[in-house]
Amino acid sequence: MADGGTAATASDAPGRGDRTEASVTAIDQARFRAILGRFATGVVAITGVDPATDRPTGLAANAFTSVSLDPPLVAFCVAHTSSTWPKLRAAPTVCVNILSDRQEHVCRQLAARGADKFDGLTWDGAPGGSPVIDGAIAWIECAVEQEHVAGDHVIVVARVLELDRHHDGTPLIFYRGGYGGFAG
Question: N or C: which end of the chain has fewer CB within 10 A?
Answer without folding.
Answer: C
